Recover the amino acids of this structure.
């Protein structure tokens, strides 16, 4: 069974109509031949079935690695509990011992003690750093299987002989000499590991003995995909079924399948278990019209397998959709229960999805009764189905709500078991373990036999914890400097001979001599006001000092300019119609020269209201070039250009073939357009590339963030070692972007933060040929890196505080602003009595708070401007710790941002984006600081470190790849790239490697588990800074709440997009008339607001965010740092205040919620020395409220949204309009026309 065999997926859903011809085609396609394996399984084989195994992972984990010993856990936490969260359990078929999983450890309750009402001391039977869960006994009770991430850090299946609760008690006062010796050295061994001393063989045996693992055997050996929910075959002692979670394309979630595995003998040494072992038994369903080549796209598959006899499998499956999505209605039914017969390969539905769904199937010992859970009105019901009569009986409505409305790899409900005699069901609910008695009616059917009874237990939890990641950044020092550097550079182009490059730096066009250490030169421009920004520059062929680039205007859109670096002469190219243009290129030939450019349509920041028709490539003649150039004979050129690909700055065009053709480079393709016949020819394509460039016989491309070159080929360009393009060479050590060849094709350039990297291509083959051939993982990069030239680029702009200082003196002849007669909530201590200052005063000089206190204690300097706020509240500016927005992904133009304006107008002065783009996110940050657009200060994780299947996938397989992933963020963002986010990374080893690299780079970890409760718990134990989003189980109990609160890890729960029910945002849409809110309509496109005119109605119990809020409140009282994050849900700004109201619903006071929005957020992000509270030396980020608005009383969001003034870094605006008050009084917000009615510019230029 070591060889994996392809088997047929489940046939298309029978509810859908198929023609007889299509049915016959599908059947003949998959039922090509029958295969019997060990006489237990009958499967269909088809070698063309594409499931993703041939794609993911790109590289495999570097082994050996042990999560218990290769990562330090210096802290120790012990606490007692009498309740637990989502406890998976199994019951011994003879002794009635109950084994259950709690916060990653396994405990046992002896069967002979469960009959009484006395509290039972739970015996730990599996402990340690590994996260253990999913326990299950075999039919005889001789073996226990469970899931664990032991050793490699990926969830796999293990098995151990069962000796009974007391015999396996890891805290027993007596035991074998080996056990007692292991306990004796426990503290010494743990201290040595915490200090980084390698584990010896002797210490390893002692550790495994203490953890209960010394005789454990591995069943599966996955290092990327993970395996859950094992079930022994009822008669074949060497076989089990489990769920293998596959990697669907374009999805954040795993796709479940049923796989069979051999079980090693426990009386023999551990055999070698192959990676990717097992046999697929039940696959995913192919929707109608899908062939086997699209199998890897399917999200939904079978889960929660149990055996029915020797040759049938019962399982639960989401039957509502083929592709997973949020917001499903559980009452309409999501999961159904099916049975697959292995002998004849037929599938039948045992329990329909309607009403309320059906999941977590379990069978009685005699297999007569099927138990499952479902939602019935506002209750969760334990239901029985008699397998003989088909009759259903509702047994008990005291269960906790199941989670079939989310993706739940930890199971839609915890596993449960029938008692040995089938007279009861043992099940977890509401934090407790229950015995639900059963009886048999006159038809032989099991029915309810009495009232459920708690099985009381007491457990002592012991956890070793890693140190939580923290850092500190002095923003005041950074932002009060006169100049700020731009490090996120883009749109790189070279001149003909590779001696000079040009690029965009936050709306500036900058030229740099290659190899010259002189500071880069700003290209002269016609418009120097901040809202005029420039982008997509390139050299005019044959002229190393003549540059064409595009000027952006919020009202007039795109204009092309020519600039001469030697003479300083600037001219605009006249005659272009109104439009949004990028990537201009001028031909090299004799007059008349030609101009080519790309026109785009809808854009996130510039909307779809104006000049959007017929996007694509245009060319025209340039008359009077270069003195007074003008466009003539403008025409559209049909092509295969893909304007849906983002980021969209990777478009480069060049005239070739004596100006008779266009060479076009994009993210995933290079093609040539014959301008005479408009014929298009593809020259190169990337399989998953981010950029592709071509020069003569060499193709360059960016794949998974690294730069590669290869000979030009008709094959798809790809860097996966097992499928790599022939002749592949990796050029970048840690990453690169904006690749471009010199005009003569001899040099290749790329950017890495504020560094220009370049390479003479002819040097590679001579110096590194052997290294490239021998290195089939990284393709010679260590050798090639010695040939790469690095040149630091220095581009700076005046800081916002320096600009504020100049503007204040010009306008007011002072640099000081005083806010007086204020009710100040400083948040300096986190104590209401100490932080509340009535009749208070703040003195602000050059954007920094100089003094704060009572009016009597703070003197007003002579000449200072005074703002009397008439007793209104003044609080620190709000920090949105989890804010998505789209301008940093999908905007092609350096325009003013309505998104950032909306956030700022609602009091958010600092944004933290947990998923963006390494370059675009920090380029946008610099545009804000330059004054192109008003907005909050921006922090970002850049690109998420993504373990699932997309082009942004990153395999963290060793220490170098971990460092590189973070170095890419730091290169572009420096201090503002202080966080990273791992998302969908199944390997705990990979996550630990990232954590270790983050400590060295002073970064914070803000991960997301993708609705995986078990991964969330390891995030907490391993010391990640926060957990983003709520844990997927809304109601948490003491085992989790104490661990979380005491760990030092914080949380940003995002109630607006909560798990386990309807989202909080649906309540907002129902209660708020957002489409009629004048303030929102001022900042947000009306087409966006129109989406929320109507909303569906759900009963209150369908929203689980209230349960989350209560759990957050309980943990906050215990010390958890919780934060406010509105997830970027529309409408921007307003929803931040609604998120605060959802947090308050759990039981926190208004002051406690305001702490989460300010001080706690700043402390977690390492920014409390500069923002998050109001104190001397801190940046003047604050909000002013009208008199009479009491922030401490009443529904919090109804108060906090009544903003009067917003101040960020000392600059003050009217909150309703963002009209500036200080230092430039009356300066109005300039946004592109977002709605058809807001534009009056057609008089000046015709639309193209």
């Amino acid at each position: 069974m070591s060889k994996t065999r392809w088997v047929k997926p489940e046939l298309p859903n029978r509810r859908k109509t198929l023609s007889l011809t299509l049915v016959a085609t599908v059947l003949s396609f998959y039922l090509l031949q029958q295969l019997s394996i060990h006489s237990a399984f009958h499967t269909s084989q088809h070698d063309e079935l594409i499931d993703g195994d041939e794609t993911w992972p790109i590289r495999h984990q570097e082994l050996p690695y042990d999560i218990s010993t290769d990562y330090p856990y210096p802290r120790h936490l012990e606490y007692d509990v009498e309740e637990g969260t989502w406890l998976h359990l199994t019951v011994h078929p003879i002794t009635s011992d109950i084994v259950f999983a709690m916060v990653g450890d396994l405990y046992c309750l002896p069967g002979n003690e469960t009959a009484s009402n006395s509290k039972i001391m739970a015996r730990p039977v599996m402990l340690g750093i590994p996260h253990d869960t999913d326990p299950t006994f075999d039919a005889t009770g001789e073996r226990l299987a469970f899931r664990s991430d032991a050793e490699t850090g990926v969830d796999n299946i293990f098995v151990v002989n069962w000796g009974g609760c007391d015999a396996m008690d890891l805290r027993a006062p007596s035991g074998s000499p080996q056990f007692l010796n292991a306990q004796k050295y426990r503290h010494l061994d743990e201290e040595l590991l915490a200090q980084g001393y390698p584990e010896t063989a002797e210490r390893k045996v002692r550790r495994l003995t203490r953890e209960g693992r010394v005789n454990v055997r591995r069943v599966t050996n996955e290092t990327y995909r993970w395996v859950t929910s094992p079930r022994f075959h009822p008669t074949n002692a060497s076989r089990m079924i489990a769920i293998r979670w596959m990697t669907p394309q374009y999805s954040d979630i795993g796709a479940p399948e049923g796989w069979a595995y051999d079980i090693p003998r426990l009386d023999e040494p551990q055999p070698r278990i192959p990676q990717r072992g097992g046999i697929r038994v039940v696959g995913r369903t192919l929707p109608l019209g899908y062939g086997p080549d699209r199998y890897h796209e399917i999200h939904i598959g079978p889960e929660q397998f149990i055996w029915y006899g020797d040759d049938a499998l019962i399982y639960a499956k989401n039957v509502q959709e083929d592709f997973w999505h949020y917001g499903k209605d559980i009452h309409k039914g999501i999961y159904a229960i099916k049975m697959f017969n292995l002998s004849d390969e037929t599938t039948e539905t045992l329990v329909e999805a309607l009403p309320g769904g059906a999941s977590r199937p379990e069978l009685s010992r005699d297999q007569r009764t099927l138990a499952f859970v479902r939602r019935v009105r506002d209750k969760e019901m334990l239901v029985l189905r008699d397998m003989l009569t088909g009759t259903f009986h509702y047994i008990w409505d005291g269960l906790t709500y199941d989670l079939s409305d989310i993706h739940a790899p930890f199971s839609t409900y915890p596993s449960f078991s029938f008692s040995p005699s089938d007279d009861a069901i043992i099940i977890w609910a509401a934090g407790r373990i229950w015995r639900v008695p059963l009886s048999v009616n006159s038809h032989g059917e099991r029915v309810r036999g009495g009232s459920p009874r708690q099985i009381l237990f007491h457990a002592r939890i012991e956890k070793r914890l890693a140190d939580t990641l923290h850092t500190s950044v002095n923003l005041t020092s950074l932002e009060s400097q006169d100049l700020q550097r731009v490090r996120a550079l883009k749109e790189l182009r070279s001149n003909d001979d590779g001696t000079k490059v040009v690029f965009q730096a936050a709306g500036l066009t900058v030229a740099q001599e290659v190899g010259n250490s002189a500071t880069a030169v700003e290209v002269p421009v016609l418009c120097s006001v901040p809202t005029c920004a420039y982008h997509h520059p390139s050299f005019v062929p044959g002229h190393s000092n003549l540059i064409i680039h595009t000027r952006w205007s919020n009202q007039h859109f795109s204009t092309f300019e020519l600039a001469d670096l030697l003479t300083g002469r600037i001219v605009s190219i006249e005659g272009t119609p109104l439009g949004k243009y990028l990537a201009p290129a001028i031909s090299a030939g004799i007059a008349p020269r030609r101009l080519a450019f790309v026109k785009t349509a809808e854009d996130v920041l510039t909307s779809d209201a104006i000049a959007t028709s017929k996007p694509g490539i245009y060319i025209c003649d340039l008359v009077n070039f270069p003195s007074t150039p003008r466009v003539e004979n403008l025409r559209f050129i049909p092509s295969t250009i893909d304007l849906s690909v983002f980021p969209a700055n990777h478009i480069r065009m060049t005239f070739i073939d004596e100006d008779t053709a266009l060479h076009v480079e994009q993210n995933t393709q290079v093609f040539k357009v014959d301008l005479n016949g408009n014929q298009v020819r593809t020259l190169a394509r990337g399989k998953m590339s981010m950029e592709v460039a071509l020069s003569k016989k060499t193709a360059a491309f960016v794949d998974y963030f690294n730069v590669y070159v290869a000979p030009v080929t008709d094959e798809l360009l790809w860097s996966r070692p097992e499928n790599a393009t022939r002749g592949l060479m990796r050029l970048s050590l840690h990453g690169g972007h904006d690749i471009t060849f010199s005009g003569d094709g001899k040099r290749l350039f790329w950017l890495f933060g504020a560094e220009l990297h370049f390479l003479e291509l002819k040097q590679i083959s001579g110096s590194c040929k052997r290294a490239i051939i021998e290195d089939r993982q990284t393709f010679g990069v260590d050798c090639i890196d010695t040939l790469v030239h690095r040149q630091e680029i220095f581009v700076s702009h005046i800081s916002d505080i320096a600009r504020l200082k100049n503007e204040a003196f010009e306008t007011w002849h002072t640099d000081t602003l005083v806010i007086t007669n204020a009710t100040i909530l400083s948040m300096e201590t986190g104590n209401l009595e100490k932080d509340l200052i009535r009749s208070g005063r703040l003195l602000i000089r050059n954007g920094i708070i100089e003094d704060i206190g009572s009016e009597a204690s703070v003197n007003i300097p002579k000449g200072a401007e005074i703002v009397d706020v008439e007793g209104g509240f003044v609080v620190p500016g709000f920090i949105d710790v989890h804010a998505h927005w789209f301008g940093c992904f999908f905007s092609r133009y350096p325009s003013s941002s309505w998104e950032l304006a909306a956030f700022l107008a609602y009091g958010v002065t600092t944004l933290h984006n947990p998923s963006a783009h390494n370059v675009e996110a920090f380029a946008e940050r610099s545009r804000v600081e330059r004054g192109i657009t008003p907005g909050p200060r921006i922090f970002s994780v850049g690109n998420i470190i993504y373990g699932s299947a997309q082009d942004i996938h990153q395999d963290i397989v060793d220490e170098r790849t971990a460092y590189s992933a973070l170095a890419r963020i730091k290169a572009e963002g420096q201090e503002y790239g202080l966080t990273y986010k791992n998302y969908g990374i199944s390997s705990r080893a990979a996550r630990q490697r990232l954590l270790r690299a983050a400590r060295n780079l002073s970064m914070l970890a803000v991960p997301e588990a993708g609705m995986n409760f078990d991964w969330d718990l390891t995030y907490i134990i391993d010391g990640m800074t926060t957990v983003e989003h709520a844990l997927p189980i809304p109601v948490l109990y003491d085992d989790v709440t104490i661990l979380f609160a005491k760990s030092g890890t914080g949380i940003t729960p995002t109630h607006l997009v909560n798990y386990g029910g309807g989202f909080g945002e649906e309540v907002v849409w129902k209660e708020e008339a957002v489409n009629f809110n004048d303030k929102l309509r001022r900042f947000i496109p009306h087409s966006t607001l129109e989406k929320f005119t109507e909303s569906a109605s759900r009963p209150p119990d369908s929203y689980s965010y209230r349960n989350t809020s209560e759990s957050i409140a309980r943990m906050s009282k215990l010390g958890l740092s919780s934060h406010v994050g509105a997830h970027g849900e529309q409408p921007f700004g307003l929803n931040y205040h609604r998120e605060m109201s959802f947090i308050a619903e759990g039981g926190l006071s208004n002051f406690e919620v305001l702490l989460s929005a300010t001080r706690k957020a700043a402390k977690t992000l390492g920014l409390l020395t500069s923002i998050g509270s109001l104190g001397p030396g801190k940046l003047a980020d604050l909000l002013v409220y009208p008199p009479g608005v009491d922030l401490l009383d009443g529904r919090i969001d109804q108060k906090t949204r009544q903003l009067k003034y917003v101040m960020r870094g000392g600059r003050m605006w009217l909150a309703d309009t963002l009209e500036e008050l200080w230092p430039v009084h009356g300066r109005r917000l300039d946004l592109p026309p977002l709605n058809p009615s807001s534009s009056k510019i057609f008089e000046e230029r015709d639309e193209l």
